[in-house]
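Q: Okay, next protein. This is Obg-like ATPase 1 from Basidiobolus ranarum. I've checked the sequence twice, so it should be correct. Can you predict the 3D structure?
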Amino acid sequence: MQVALLGIRWSVKPAVRHFVNIQQCAAFSTTRIIWAKKVSGKNKGVVEEKLLLGRPSNNLKIGVVGLPNVGKSTFFNAITNSTVAAENYPFCTIDPEESRVAVPDSRFDWLCEHYKPASKVPAYLTVIDIAGLVKGAASGEGLGNAFLSHVKSVDAILHVVRAYENQDIIHVEGDINPVRDMEIIHEELRLKDMEFLSKYYDTISKQVTRVGANSSPADKAKKEEADTVKKVMDWVLNENKDVRSGEWSNPEIEVINKLYLLTAKPVIYLANLSEAEYVGKNNKWVPKIKEWVDQEHPGDLVIPFSGEFEEKISGLSEQDRGATLQELNTVSALPEIIVAGYKALQLIYYFTAGTDEVRAWTVRKNTKAPQAAGVIHSDFEHGFIKAEVIKFEDLKTLKTDAAVKANGKCLQKGKDYAVEDGDIVFFKFNKTQSKK
């Protein structure tokens, strides 16, 4: 039996392929984008820009979630090169730990080599290590509500699931069964959403019982909100589906985004293997994990990794780490996990580049040029005139800024331009005076 995932072919046999490059593995999205449709009336033919699930922010965070003792803190230590406690007992982590990790990108590396800047600032992913969840957490078992409130505060989930045997490490369910463990986590998140939605609907429905044709716009809006909450509640309860897998209109997404629902968050599944199984690419649970995810949450990503291996090599020098990976004929999974997490949050980045600094600026997908400029400074957004955009491949091919301009590849973009991932941008703006 063979299962293809993230550029690896996993098999019960040891002969498998290696990871593909990071750019290829990152070309996915776990958050559902509702594509544009034509609007009616006088604007017929105009394409309506569809909203994304989640907060419209550039400062988004991804949380590491799973049962106790599955390797969450070990993974966090490795990915952040941190020193968070990782011990063999449940709830070793209580208060969430937070750290930023640089997003690897060969384009950023090339720009730094090209310009040789005095300052180099890559894009960052904010990662939070959250305490372990147990069955019954939605009703208060284990750390219960505290855990779920921490999940509510993040924007995407890295779901770590244990797929290795080790008699010395306790498993809260008594044995190793990753599919069962994933079902436990999913059910607890769904139950917590159901509890919240039921209470919220009971409250809001009482406020709209008398809404009629002559009601105020505010009352009608409240009625529409109640209808959306009821629709979402039915989807989660009766269909047993995650909110993020539903088809929602823009007004419905606006309501959903205010609720911070747990099952609305994108999820990446991290299958934690032993070092030997990871290096040998041979683990009996990986195909079963992938099969469950494809059936229950189609489109979600599964990434095999080894927490013990990643933690071991994270403490090595760059030279020694490279030599170890070459000797074992393997790669670290962490760069791909970081990029995948960044993409799951619907984040992209553009570059400002020159001899003073090469910097990646994080924005959410579909961000217009003025708002992208505002990430640098609010004056750039308020006084926005235009954006001069160079595509990375054009600069790499033509070698110099002057050659790009001479070949007509320096694009002049206005307020309606949605900045694209990897753009090299120079903003022009009028400095605005604040009102006294």
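A: Here is a summary of the prediction. The mean pLDDT is 83. Residues 178-206 form the longest helix (29 residues).
Q: Noted. On to the next one.
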